[in-house]
Amino acid sequence: MNQTVEQLRLVPLFARLEPGDLEKIGTLMYERRYGKGQIIFMEGEPGEALFLLKEGRIKLTRQTEDGREHILHLVNAGEVFAEVVLFDGGGYPATAETMEDCRVGIIRNQDLEQVIAGSPGLALAMLKIMAGRLRAAQEKVMSLALHDAARRVVSTLLRLAEEHGTAGPEGQRINLALTNQELAELAATSRETVNRTLNDLRRRKIIDVSGPQIIIRDRRRLLDTL
């Protein structure tokens, strides 16, 4: 139980709660393990729970009208996801699929609702998290509307570097093992466009590729391509 409470304390959604509230939520959480490539829930299924990723990485995706997969968000350890269903009572707005072996904490909505009823602070924290997600989604929509395909790839690289990057002597490394197809799904474009854009940036020594990871060697020049 102590380990679960400490994990919850590190999550922005729960960080400001009193120890007693954290313990209450900790008693509600149960854990499941998923292998790489497993589906946790599908878009449109009844939304029954809130999830905390304890270990691994998950992608949240939606199907476009032409049947392509579009990645909405990459979930890292310590993040909550599917919290929106707690408020609207509808189905899951996206599909959650593991990108590697994962350990996931699960809290049923009906159990958490009882805790929220007695904790306005938790309700406020959730609203702030969701407001941040909405702002990020709006920025992404603007990027898709205003930028051509190549610039969307660049914009996606910059966003991934901000969210998942670490600085080193060679530049800013994006700590994600993404395929070009997954990068295309994040940028809402084709794999061919991603290949062409990355090759051009690499030729100009703006980025480098180390295995499955991308290194931004010259952030200023990358920004200038937007």
Concise summary:
The chain has 226 residues and is α+β, with helices and mostly antiparallel strands. It has nine helices and twelve strands.
Structural overview:
It is a single chain. With 226 residues, this protein is of the alpha+beta class. The chain folds into two domains: 3-144, Jelly Rolls (Sandwich); 147-224, Arc Repressor Mutant, subunit A, CATH 1.10.10. Helices cover 45% and strands 26% of the residues. It has nine helices and twelve strands. It has helices at residues 2-9, 19-28, 85-88, 109-117, 120-146, 149-164, 180-187, 191-203, 219-224, and strands at residues 30-34, 39-41, 49-55, 57-63, 69-76, 80-81, 95-98, 102-108, 165-168, 171-174, 207-210, 213-216. It has a four-stranded antiparallel β-sheet with strand order 1-8-3-6. A four-stranded antiparallel β-sheet has the order 2-7-4-5. Strands 9-10-12-11 form a four-stranded antiparallel β-sheet. A hairpin with a 2-residue loop joins strand 9 and strand 10 (171-174). It starts with a helix and ends with a helix. 30% of the residues are buried.
